[in-house]
Amino acid sequence: MMKTTWTVERQKRGPKQLLPPGIEEDIVEWIAAMQRRGWPVDRAAVIHKACQVLSLHAGIPRSVSRGWYQKFCTRNPRISERLAQRLSKSRNKVDKEGIITYFNSLLKACLGFHCTARDIYNVDETSFKTKTHSKRVVAIRGSRSVWIEENAEAYHLTIVMTATADGTLVPPAFILPGVTCETSVLDECPVDGALVTTAPKAFMNSTIFNTWLIAFGEWKLEARGGHPAVMVLDNCSSHHCVESEWICETYGILLVFLPPNATHLLQPLDVAIFRSYKRDIKNAVTTYLRAFNAVSLPRAKAISIAGEAFNKLRSRNDFLANERRDLSGIVQNGFRTCGTWPLSLPMMLKRLALQTSNGVDKDIGAATWIRTQVAAREDVLTVPARHTGKERKRVSTDDEWFSMAGLHAAASIPNKRE
């Protein structure tokens, strides 16, 4: 007789996990679906849903253990904790038609001027802030209250940044509050060619934009000769002015405006540059205030810090573009990612698709579940319904009485246009 042999399946040591792997995969799908709908969940919401699912699975009220969440994240490396960016409703309504119109305008400008990478520019304004919101810090365990002294933000400073698709950074311009400024305010600025002006509240307006266009045109004639410039910028009202047309015609500048509320998607400065630039400014401001035990920042020092951060950004970009031949610079990456240069409509639409799915670039969170498979899928792991926006909020009664169903039925009937 032949001897019967048996195989022993190697299993993980220790107690078994509370929720089976299949149910944990369902929770991951629910997390992704909530993210797609624009309602990303936090740690507490995941634990709460896990307790509900566990109670349904066990048949009695139960809760997950204290360390379940950390082990759950380890077992499912597809999920991670992120800082959610707050988008207004208007910024979340960028449509495909607007992006196609912008692409056609940019394509027409580039073909008309026979542009290269050195002829494509992007200009935008950003703020210089020394005051920040509350943040997580490292403190001694058991501390009942941890505080940080607030910096006094005595003024608002606007920085005008301009970059080209070939990686060139145009010297920045600074807008200070008030009517006058000190003659020595630029003495400590380490950037050659930096400009400064004043405005009542240090914000860009049409007059300042026109004078900046003239200054930029003079810089272009000196640095680039007679080459044309295709300028990509946002749809701010200060950028639309009759006087801007003849200034652009004089200096060979063509303005191409981004779609409304699409700067976070298609503007290279917003996508690739401002985050690291403002982080360097923040670190330098913190170092200065700590070193001098101060709560305010002189204007000349603020411009000096912004200039040093600008030089640091330019050095980092040149290092990536020149020393490491396999990688392009930060600025070039920003233009390529936004589809600005090389011109790419698929890249622009890809960024729109990523925003529509809230950053989920795979099929996760879009599965069609079978209703009879698991009760937890139908009763607990649910997502908010999509708002169609077709039903009116008010109906005309015309001296008639309506029930709840009648009100909704009347609201679903479109108004007749006169």
From TrEMBL:
The keyword Magnesium does not apply. It comes from the Eukaryota. Residues 11-82 form the HTH CENPB-type domain. GO terms for cellular component: nucleus. The keyword Phosphoprotein does not apply. PANTHER family: HTH CENPB-TYPE DOMAIN-CONTAINING PROTEIN, TRANSPOSON. Keywords: DNA-binding. This is HTH CENPB-type domain-containing protein. One of its GO terms (molecular function) is DNA binding. Transmembrane segments: none annotated.
